[in-house]
Amino acid sequence: RIVYELRPRLDVRFAGGHLTTSDAGFRGLDVPAPKPPGVYRIVGIGDSYMFGQGVSDGDTYLARLPRLMEDARPGRSVETVNLAVPGFNTVMEVELLRQRLERFEPDLILIEIVGNDLDLPNFL
Known about the structure:
- The protein is α/β, with parallel strands linked by helices.
- The protein has three helices and five strands, in the order βββααβαβ.
- The strands form two sheets. It has a three-stranded parallel sheet, with helices on both faces. A two-stranded antiparallel sheet has the order 1-2.
- β1 and β2 (about 15-20) form a beta hairpin.
- About 25% of the residues are buried.
């Protein structure tokens, strides 16, 4: 059900931004498993919007979210996991969550939905 995925350990320019992927093949840095005590973890899934296509790693929505939340609630450690992949559709997103979600122990899942999510995946 997953037609394509990101390659692990990328370090490239993509659509104008600097993009890296973790050892697990998601955008950004690896996160510890199991989740450390006291950490509030957010997992984001979707396509290019949630992925942050066109911006560098530190400028994605999910990369900025922990700082915003920690500013609003000092003393709370927040980390995010960006499982989004450009061109994914809903079927691929659901399958990716089924395969990987348990490992990340999320406290919150953010799902980005756009009009083409019921279509065939892009980039085929």
